[in-house]
Every structure is written in C-alpha cells, then in structure tokens.
Amino acid sequence: MTPLDATAATATSPSTGESPAPRPRPRGRLPGDPTPEQRLARIVRVDHAGEYGAKRIYEGQLSVMGRGRHAKTLRHMADQELEHLQYFEKQLVARQVRPTVLQPLWHVAGFLLGAGTAVMGERAAMACTVAVEQVIDGHYEAQLKHLGPDEEELKTSILKFQAEEVEHRDIGLLNGAEQAPAYPVLSAAIKAGTKAVIWVAERV
C-alpha cells in the first residue's frame, strides 16, 4: 500500500468506504467564547465593579446634594447599592474570583461622575441615575440568560438587584431627569461610558 492509499484508508469508514461525517462543534459556543466557569467569574467580577462604581456615584452626588431636597432619596438608593456591593464582595471571596484591577479608577471616576452631574443641577444628577440604571437593567437581563438552575441563589439575587435598579431609574424619571440641560447628549455619553466600563471590568 502506498502512503497515498494509507491516507485514503484512514479517511474512510471501514464498513461503508465513505468518508466519516465531520465532528459537530458543540452548540452554543464559538471559538474564543469564555467557558461556563470563565463566564461566571466575569459575571461576579463585573457586577462587583458595577456596584462599587454605583456606590461612588451616589457618594459623589451626596457630597453636593446631601442637604438638599433629594438627600433622603439619594441615601435610599445609596443604601441599596451598598447592599448589592456587599453581596458581590462575598461572592468574590466564596468563588475565589479576583476583583477588577481597575477598581482604584472606578473609585475616582464614580465619585467624579456623581459630583459632576450634581454640580450641573438636580435634574442632571437624576439624568445620570437614569442613564446608568438603564444600562445596568439590560446588563443584568443579559446575565440572567446564562445562569442555570445550579446558580439559583445568584439568579434570585440578581433579579432582586435588577428590580431595585429599575426603581432607581423610575425615581430619576419622576424627578425631572429628562428635563436636564442637553439631556440626550448627557444621557448618551453616560450610557456609552457605562457600557465601556462593563466591557473592561469583565476582562481586566
């Protein structure tokens, strides 16, 4: 048998003489997609980073508006964000997932975003809340699709947090967010920044 014959023999089925069907690629994943374990680590890491950033945004807003008519509302939302953050801090430890290395940047950037929009006015501060929470609502919704019955506790917690983020969005809308100066531009800029932060925090 020549080398060519040998190659042909290994490429055909011994019973039918036909070439075997190509091995199917696992459904649901493409080359380069994260494994389920990597995806779960990303979920915990980015959610921790996001809640940390949200906490700092409200701290920045309270530094400017802490004595104003919205102070009680801002503290209510800040307290909920702190609860979310504490939950994901525990998840990091329990699952041995490292936080994003850019957390010091979120510490500063979150505070500046909160304080900066508050300086622009109450409606701008509320516009910031609406923009951020709209992105987070969609972000949590996408995550829930990847969580199976083996992660029911995490899924339940994310559903609770998502509902509270939607509550924050609605509070912002009820308090004049859409009447903020240059609302479409301000909202689009904050949304773009939030989406960029999410993408980076998942990976770094």
TrEMBL record:
- Which pathway does this chain act in? Cofactor biosynthesis; ubiquinone biosynthesis
Q: Where is the signal peptide?
A: none
Reaction equations catalysed: a 5-methoxy-2-methyl-3-(all-trans-polyprenyl)benzene-1,4-diol + AH2 + O2 = a 3-demethylubiquinol + A + H2O
Q: Where is the composition biased (Low complexity)?
A: 1-20
**Where is this protein localized, as stated in its record?**
Cell membrane
- Cofactor binding summary note: Binds 2 iron ions per subunit.
Which keywords annotate this record? Cell membrane, Iron, Membrane, Metal-binding, Monooxygenase, Oxidoreductase, Ubiquinone biosynthesis
Specify the protein's topology with respect to the membrane.
Peripheral membrane protein
EC number(s) stated in the UniProt entry for this protein: 1.14.99.60
Q: What does this protein do?
A: Catalyzes the hydroxylation of 2-nonaprenyl-3-methyl-6-methoxy-1,4-benzoquinol during ubiquinone biosynthesis.
Protein family (similarity comment): Belongs to the COQ7 family.
Q: What is this protein called?
A: 3-demethoxyubiquinol 3-hydroxylase
Give the originating organism: Azospirillum himalayense
Organism ancestry: Bacteria, Pseudomonadati, Pseudomonadota, Alphaproteobacteria, Rhodospirillales
In the UniProt record, the gene name given for this protein reads: coq7
